[in-house]
Amino acid sequence: xxxxxxxxxxxxxxxxxxxxGPLLVMAGAGSGKTRVLTHRIAYLMEEKMxxxxxxxxITFTNKAAREMKERVQQLMGESARDVWVSTFHAxxxxxxxxxxxxxxxxxxxxxxxxxxxxxxxxxxxxELGLDPKRQSPKNFLAKISNxxxxxxxxxxxxxxxxxxxxxxxxxxxxxxxxxNNRVDFDDLLMLTVHLFERHPEVLSYYxxxxxxxxxxxxxxxxxxxxRIVKMLAARFHNVCVVGDSDQSIYSWRGADIQNILSFExxxxxxxxxxxxxxxxxxxxxxxxxxxxxxxxxxxxxxKLWSDRGAGEILEYHRAQDGDxxxxxIADKIIHLSRDGYGFxxxxxxxxxxxxxxxxxxxxxxxxxxxxxVGGLSFFKRKEIKDLMAYLxxxxxxGDDISFLRVVNEPKRGIGGxxxxxxxxxxxxxxxxxxxAIGQGGAGISKAASNKLVEFKSLIGYLRACxxxxxxxxxxxxxxxxxxxxxMLNADDTIEAHARLDNLEEFKSMAAQFEQEEIPKxxxxxxxxxxxxxxxxxxxxxxxxxxxxxxxxxxxxxGDSGPKVTxxxxxxxxxxxxxxxxxSGFEDGIFPLFSAIEAGGDELEEERRLAYVxxxxxxxxxxxxxxxxxxxxxxxxxxxxxxxIREISDPLMRKTGTGHRxxxxxxxxxxxxxxxxxxxxxxxxxxxxxxxxxxxWGIGDKLAHDKFGDGIVVxxxxxxLTIAFSSEHGIKKLMGAHxxxxxxxx
Length: 745
Ligand code: ATP
Ligand code: MG
Description:
Elements lengths: L1 H5 L3 H8 L5 E5 L5 H14 L8 E5 L2 H15 L7 E4 H12 L10 E2 L2 H14 L9 H13 L14 H16 L2 E2 L1 H14 L1 H10 L2 E4 L7 H11 L5 E5 L14 H9 L4 E5 L1 E2 L4 H11 L11 E2 L7 E8 H17 L7 E5 L5 H10 L4 E3 L9 H14 L4 H7 L9 H14 L3 H4 L9 H20 L5 H11 L2 H7 L3 H31 L11 H14 L14 E5 L8 E6 L10 H6 L1 H15 L2 E15 L2 E3 L5 H4 L6 E4 L2 H4 L12 H8 L19 E4 L3 E9 L2 E6 L5 E5 L5 E4 L2
This protein binds adenosine-5'-triphosphate and magnesium ion.
Magnesium ion binds next to helix 3.
C-alpha cells in the first residue's frame, strides 16, 4: 500500500484514496490523471479488498486500454487480469454480445466499417431517388452519427424541425443495417442504452458487477457515453472521472465539454480534485503549450508547472517543400538516435492522415523502422476485407453488403447485369440476395442462374462445415474452397504475394485470438458459464467484431523492435514521447482551412489540438512546416500556422531555409490580416479542402463507352472492379476514366 502512494503528490494520493462516492479530477496535460486511475484501481484491490471483476475502467483508445491494463498488472500481478479495462465501444460490444437478442437483433450481429457504411448510405440514397453525386453521402452519414450520439432515432426527431429528406434516409439506412444484421459504431452505444432502458434486469446485472467505475478522457464523452456511465453508476455512485477541458478534441463526433460541468450537477456530493504539477514535460514545452491555449476564451486558467527543468527551447523548422520537411525529420531522427535515443522514443504527429505518405517515404529512404497508427489499416486492405466478407456471409447469408463484395471475387463469371436483375428481384420480393437466388422470376439466364446457385451452395456448404473446424482451420478452408488462394497463387506478382502474406497474418491473428484472447475474455467476464463453451460461429462473431474495433491500433507486424510512431494528433491523446515532431504546422493544414473560415468554436478546437500535440513531448519538441507542398493534387504555399505565432519568440529556435523564402518573410507577426493572406494564397477552388475520395461505391451502376453496362463490385481507392454484362466480364478500371459514366435507375 505504501508503495502505491509513495510516488504520488498529496493531491494525487487524495484522489487515489477517495474511493467511495463520485470524484472528478480535472487537470492539465501530463499531471498524472491516467496514473492516478491505474494506482486507484490497484489501491481498491489491495487496500479495499475489492474484487477485480467489480472494477471497470474506460479509456478512449484500444492502445490506452492495453497500456492501462499492463500498468495495473505490473502493480498487482495476475489478479488484475479480471478488471474490465476497455473503450466504450469494446465494452458495448461485450454487453451486446450477451443480450442484443433481447432488443431484436441476432447474436451474430456484425459491425459495419466506414467504407461499408458509405456503400449502404449510397444505396439508400439511390433507392430514394437521390443522386449521391449531387448530395454528399458523407454529410448524411455525419448527421446520422450525430443523431445517434444524441440518442435520437428517426422516431424521436421532430418532423417539423428536421428535414424530411434526412429522416427518410436515416430510416432507410437503419432498415438496411437491420436487415443485414449489422450495426455501425454509433449503434453500439445507442443500442446499449436501449438495452439498459428496456431491460432493467440487464442493467441491474452490470450495476452490481461494476461497483467501481473509472473514465479517462472524460472531456471527450458524448451524450450516449455520458448516459451509459450515469446508468451504470446509479446504484453505487462510485464513479471517478478524469479529464481536461483544454484537451477536448472530439466535438465533431458529438463530444460535449458540458459533460464535465454536468458532473458536479449530477453528483452534488462529488469530490473535486485539481492537479497542478506536470511530470511529463520540460518547462519550456509547457510554456509553449500555455502560450497557445491561453488564446482560447472562456477557459479556466490552469497554472501547470514542472520541476523537470527548463530543458532546451523548441526548434521551429521551416523547409522549402513537403518532401524536404519529411527528410529533415528523418535526418534528425537518425542524428538523435546516434546520441542514444531509441527509435521508440520518437513520434511524428500530423493533423490529417494524408500527411503520412511523405513522412513514411522519408522513413523508408533512411531505413528507419516505423509504425503507422491508424491510416489505411490492415483491416481495410482488399484481401482482408474480402476474407472478412466471406466469413460474415457464412455467419449470416442475409448480409447483402458482404454478398456483393465477394460473389464474383474470385471471378465466377457472375456479371453486372445478372447482379442487377437479382438485386431488382430481391427488392421487390423483399428478401436478401442470397435467398433470391434460384427463385426464378428475376429474368436471369439459365447459365447465369447456375453460377449463382453454385455460389449459394458453396456458402451453404461452408456454413455446414463451421461447427467442425477451429477458427484457423475455418479461415484456411474458406480461402481454399472459394478459390481465393488459387487466384492469388496463379497471379505471380509482388502484389499477390503481399496479399498472401496478409492473409497468413490474418491466420496467425485468428490463432492467437482463439488460443489467448478468447480464454482471457471469458475469464474477465467472471467465469460466466454460459460463455464457457463457445461454438466456432460464436468465436467468429467475436473475432470479426473485435477486429473492427481495433482499427485505431493499426497494424502491429510481427517484428516488435523499437519503432518511430507516426500518427494523427487525435490518435496521440493521452500518450507521451521523449521526442515529438509536429509536421505541417501551417495555416490551411493546422488549423484546417475550414476552421479558419468558420472561426469561433472550430478554431478553438484546433487550438486545443495544438495544445494536445505540444504536450505529448517530454524532452524535445520540433515544430515543422514547409514553404510549398502538394496538397489535394496541386501545389500550395501555406503561411506558417497562427498557433506558431502565439508562442513567444524566446521559446523557439528557428532553423531551415524556408523562413527566408516564406511569403511572410522573416517577420513572424505580419501587419496585414492573416485571413486575407490565407485567402490570397489559397484560391478558393471548389472542393479544394474536401477529402479526395472515390465517388464510387459497390453496387453502383455504370456505362462504359466500349464495354457497355456494368456494376461496381469492388472499390480500392480509385481502382474499381467492374462486372460488365457483356462478354468483357470483370475489369479493373480507374474510377475517374472519362469512358465511365454513372447510371442511375
Ligand atoms: P494527459 O492529459 O496527457 O492524458 P495525464 O494527466 O493522464 O496526461 P499521465 O500520463 O498520467 O498524465 O502522467 C504523465 C507522466 O507523468 C507519466 O509518465 C507518469 O508516469 C508521470 N507521473 C505522474 N505522476 C507522477 C508522480 N507523482 N511521480 C512521478 N511521475 C509521475
Ligand atoms: Mg491521460
